[in-house]
Design brief:
The chain is an alpha/beta fold. The protein is 35% helix and 18% strand. The protein has 13 helices and 15 strands. The chain has helices spanning 11-17, 35-56, 72-85, 98-105, 114-124, 132-145, 170-190, 196-205, 225-232, 281-291, 322-336, 356-364, 420-433, and strands at 23-29, 63-69, 91-97, 212-217, 235-245, 270-273, 276-280, 308-310, 316-319, 344-348, 370-371, 385-389, 398-403, 436-444, 462-465. Strands 11-12-10-13-14-9-15 form a seven-stranded parallel beta sheet, covered by helices on one side. Strand 13, helix 13 (420-433) and strand 14 (436-444) form a beta-alpha-beta unit. It is globular, with a radius of gyration of 22 Å. The two termini are 29 Å apart.
Length: 466
């Protein structure tokens, strides 16, 4: 699978790269603005700075670097790019997810399984007036945002990063805290189990033996406050840490302020990338329409088609049965896409077995593909068709993106416009659309459409019945 390699820095990026100072740097930017590329170009520049400092004092200590991202698929992609930027022998580079990094340091920890975690939280919260997924997300949000000694702050804090529906007033917060979170934590403590948040809490107050000179934290909006506290705590005394984020693309139950995680951020430490270098105007305009009306904070950069520099064809919206959608796209690939030079991604909200029929159709068409969700390394083969969940596609880019089978059964949410899950799904879809450099094709079955289809502006797509 093709991965981006050498890129000439843009004028916006050069403005960031010209400032090589120690301390905190925050890079904000919309999808397609080159945030990750900028961070990795900055990494190359910072390596040069630290190597010069080492040589000046005749130190043989290597420059220690940690590049963190939020999921394994993106880790594999960034590993390809980061190692291309850092070639010096005097450098020790780790590219990892937070969970893999943490478990490598504490390999003996007994981690509670996802199924057991869900089972316990559901059981403790069975009398609360929420559906199980909302409760799971809320518990993850609270445990990830507050330390154990500060859990009571949840009762009065603004729920940054969460929607306004369903409403969670103080009496319900007390019940979530006292009936679910504290009993759940006590139960896993008594069984000598670790929740993923326990790793974040541990490293928030414990240092590794050899701290890092440089940390790059990509997609930081989808890491928890405790994870960021833990990461910050592993820096050397003289060091650099760069956070790359866009809260408009947040797809997990997260929320924090920089002050909360112990950082004082001055205006000159914040850079924003506004131009869209990835998408055509037409693709960016469609992504923008999906996001219209969603509240944004200061760390968000909303998609803006006027900031794109290229024109292309209108995205396509297919109406028909899934088999007909797949047939159209397979013919489209054969007629319009040179797979020797262009990459294709089939994205889906759920993945897993939902790709089974598609894999059969691709095999029948003799179109080789790779499954990319949660893979540790970037695919090395010549296949330029990837199958991936929308979640795992975050931070990646492809020439063409196909999102088929956008039916209600795979995008469940509440009914109100301010529903947290609905807004998350809208951000997820806009992010998926924004993975495409050249064009996007979406599809759904009439009569079974996801509500997400309502947010695709009709003048931004070419509708085709199949």
């Amino acid at each position: 699978m093709r991965a981006l390699r050498d890129v000439a820095p843009t004028a916006e990026q050069l403005g960031i790269l010209s400032r090589n100072e120690l301390g905190v740097e925050i890079i904000r930017g919309a999808a397609g603005s080159g945030k990750t590329t900028t961070a990795l170009l900055r990494l190359r520049s910072l390596v040069g700075l630290f190597l010069s400092r080492r040589r000046r004092v005749k130190s043989e200590e290597p420059v220690r670097i940690l590049v963190l991202t939020y999921n394994r698929t993106l880790r594999g992609y960034i590993d390809e790019l980061a190692r291309h930027q850092v070639g010096a022998a005097e450098v020790e580079l780790e590219v990892s997810t937070f969970s893999k990094w943490a478990t490598q340091i504490i390999p003996t920890a007994q981690i509670i399984s996802r199924n057991e975690r869900v089972k316990r939280i559901k059981e403790f919260g069975k009398t609360l007036p929420f559906d199980s997924q909302f409760l799971l997300d809320e518990v993850e949000y609270v445990m990830g945002r507050f330390t154990k000694s500060e859990l009571s702050n949840y009762l009065t804090a603004r729920r940054d990063g969460r929607g306004t529906v369903p409403r969670v007033e103080k009496p319900l917060r007390e019940r979530i805290l006292n009936e679910v979170i504290i009993p759940y934590q006590n139960s896993i403590d008594s069984d000598s189990l670790w929740d993923w948040n326990d790793f974040a809490l541990f490293f928030s107050s414990n240092n590794i033996e050899q701290p890092y000179d440089i940390i790059i934290c990509d997609e930081a909006q989808d890491l928890s406050a405790n994870e960021l506290r833990a990461i910050k705590n592993q820096l050397a005394q003289e060091s650099s840490i760069t956070f790359v984020l866009d809260t408009a693309q947040r797809i997990y139950a997260r929320g924090y302020t920089w002050v909360e995680i112990g950082l004082t951020v001055r205006p000159e430490q914040v850079k924003r990338l506004s131009r869209n270098y990835r998408n055509t105007r037409q693709v960016a305009a469609l992504a923008s329409s999906v996001m219209l009306g969603i509240p944004a904070d200061e760390d968000a950069t909303m998609p803006d088609f006027s900031k794109s520099s290229r024109d292309g064809n209108l995205p396509i919206l297919l109406l028909g049965r899934f088999k007909s959608q797949a047939d159209f796209v397979i013919n489209y690939i054969k007629k319009n896409i040179d797979l020797n030079h262009h990459s294709v991604a089939f994205l889906h909200p759920l993945g897993g077995g939902w790709f089974d029929d598609l894999k059969t159709y691709l095999n029948d068409a003799k179109l080789p593909f790779v499954e990319m969700t949660r893979k540790e390394t970037w695919p090395k083969g010549n296949e330029n068709i990837g199958l991936c969940t929308l979640h795992s596609s975050k931070g990646l880019e492809f020439d063409y993106v196909f999102i088929l089978g956008l039916n209600a059964e795979v995008t469940k949410h509440g009914e109100e416009e301010e529903d947290d899950k609905l807004q998350t799904l809208r951000r997820l879809l806009a992010m998926g659309i924004g993975r495409a450099r050249e064009n996007v094709i979406l599809g759904y079955k009439p009569g079974a459409a996801s509500k997400l289809i309502d947010y695709l502006a009709s003048d931004k797509v070419e509708v085709i019945n199949v």
